[in-house]
Predict the 3D structure of the following.
Amino acid sequence: MSRIAACLEACKASGRKAVIPYIVAGDPWSDITVPAVHILVEAGADIIELGVPFSDPMAEGPVIQLGHERALAHDVGMGNVLAMVAEFRQQDPNTPVVLMGYANPVEVMGYETFAKAATAAGVDGVLTVDMPPEEAGDMNAVFREYQLDTIFLIAPTTTEARTKAICAMATGYIYYVSLKGVTGAGHIDTDEVKRKVNGIKASTSLPVCVGFGIKDGDSAAAIGQCADGVVVGSVLVNGMGESVGMATRDDNADASVDPLAGKDRAALAEVVNARILSIVSEIAEGANR
């Protein structure tokens, strides 16, 4: 059984909803990512979604796009991300880690090279946002050979027939996008989410986790009524970016380029970690209200 399956089964057995925070690897600087992930686990995270920095993150709203830009400003790429996961695994052998990103970095490495490196680093699953399920057969075959779960998005506009096809290809969990648009956009229609999630569950035995609109404890509680897990991203990435901006403001530094200008690295890390601890703890409490 994969770490993802074991984690989600344990959450179900204990009557809890899985809490799945998303941060961009290398945001706001590269050596805070591993400590931040440990803080997320401490705050109540069950599964970590780690964003792979990409120059054209088309599914992301402006908040997460800025997170990608901050990471890319420090030249964080796939190799760095895998090294971060490997470092995290030195202290945490249990918490599942999912890489969420786009097809290009994986295609550049090649499916088998990537899968081998990801498995060696301790990655459990991959969500490739812009990989159509119709074209994912070769990728899926290689990833399953290396016991990497393949997670797919289902949108509010996805037809019933396509939902069934996606569910047949997916492993780990299904990620339902709670609203039409990019990450962090709009407000969730909880009745519509419940209807759609129930429809997805009729097509799969996999857990269904919901994201793209979880902003606080209240929205987590509402979605937790029908979902098996809640994904929080934009509010967390925004909190990290804001905390660095506030900490560097007196130095007239451009935090998007050099958040450490004139500041002690440990002091900045404390500010960022305190912010993400607060946000994820609120989401976790809300989801399991």
